[in-house]
Design a protein that fits this description.
mainly alpha
């Protein structure tokens, strides 16, 4: 994972912790 992807994932987590959304974002990054 590159830094930009990490920042995007962190933004999702900070803005609204929704497990399914976070997992979807993580899988999309991968």
């Amino acid at each position: 994972m590159n830094e930009d992807s990490k920042q995007k994932l962190q933004s999702v987590v900070k803005n609204q912790w929704d497990p399914s959304s976070a997992i979807t974002q993580f899988l999309a990054i991968e």
